[in-house]
Amino acid sequence: MMAGRPHPRPSGSLENEIVACLAAAGEPLTPAQVQAELGGDLAYTTVLTTLTRLYSKQALHRAPRGRTYAYQLVGSKTEAQAGLTARQMQKLLEAGVDRASVLSRFVDNLDEDSARILRDLLAHHPDGDQPPSSGRIPDRGSK
Predict the structure, then answer these.
(1) CA distance 140 to 29
(2) pLDDT digit string, tens, across residues 127-136
(3) Do both 91 and 101 map to the same domain?
(4) Can you tell me the distance from the alpha carbon of 72 to that of 6, in angstroms, rounded to the nearest whole number?
(5) Using alpha carbons only, what angle is made at residue 13 by residues 110 and 64, rounded to the nearest 5 degrees?
(6) Residues 105 and 59 in one domain
(7) Same domain (yes/no): 69, 128
């Protein structure tokens, strides 16, 4: 347990709360406005740091407002959360493990709908019509 905080948030949950807050607002908010909307015991610096990280991850736009910035989502809430998830997946893939094994296990654990979506995305990807043979996604419909 962390000192001073009896129930620490799960990793990424504050980012998700801030994304949801900005989506609900529908307009750019300053860190102080985000802090007020989230309520609770969040320190201003915690909100500011999280907003800055989301901005560096390209999930937010920011524009000067007075002596600070006002932040808003890049696209919709769904697009922002998808971008953050994709960035996390990419970071994990770049962590130095065997990418082919990781991707193979990932694909093996996909449900049929997700596998179909992934096949369709790869088939229409601008880098080529077919994925490399070592990265071939099994057709779960032909089992």
Answers:
(1) 45
(2) 754 444 444 4
(3) no
(4) 31
(5) 120
(6) no
(7) no
